[in-house]
Amino acid sequence: MKLLSDWGFSLEGLRTGNKGEYWFLAQALIVIIFPFLPAYRPIWLALNSASYLYFNWGVAAILALIALVFLGKGLIDLGKQLTPLPYPKEDGELVQTGIYSLVRHPLYSGLIFLTLSWAIFQMSLTHLFAALTLFIVLNAKASKEEAWLSAKFPEYAEYRQKVKKLIPGLY
To answer: What does the pLDDT look like over 44-87, one tens digit per residue?
Structure first.
């Protein structure tokens, strides 16, 4: 329980959602359900040649490696600032170095790239839809988080101008 309270969870927060608990619950629900989704592969998505299949697997593997780098380096660089809630820790500091110099939310990016990798590997529209849903939820969660970070850290506005939100160089 200490870890949960260190992260900012409280019974009041679960009732009110005042630190973004509902965004975390939506994210957790998608991530937990994702591996159990049935794969839906329409006929027109069938890969009829080995070269297409290997290309597909190669793209999926590259996305999975990118995801693991984002997740691993994001966790390392964030260190004690880690909280699954979008509300920053009271004693938190703004991290702008390491992977955070490439993208503002690398842990969210890592989850998105990982689910997209699995959707491509499986050639599953069900998983692709879930990855898109996760992107929408994490993008909204990041926007809420950024409002709180902007209020807490005056330098966040400049950081936001320099570094993309979820996809380096693009978005």
So the answer is: 777 778 888 899 999 999 999 999 999 999 999 999 889 999 99
Query: What span, in angstroms and rounded, lies between the C-alpha atoms of 141 and 144?
Result: 5
Structure tokens at 1: 């329980």
- H, E, C per residue of the chain: CHHHHHCCCCHHHHHHCCCCHHHHHHHHHHHHHHHHCCCCCCHHHCCCCHHHHHHHHHHHHHHHHHHHHHHHHHHHHHHHHCCCCCCCCCCCCCCCCHHHHCECCHHHHHHHHHHHHHHHHHCCHHHHHHHHHHHHHHHHHHHHHHHHHHHHCCCHHHHHHHCECCCCCCC
Residue 86: which residues within 8 A CB-CB, separation 6 or more? Answer: 19, 20, 23, 24, 141, 142, 144, 145, 148
φ, ψ dihedrals at 104, nearest 5°: -75, -25
Vertex 81: Cα angle to 149 and 74 (nearest 5):
95
**Distance between CA atoms of 104 and 35, rounded to whole angstroms?**
26
- What global pTM score does this model have? 0.90
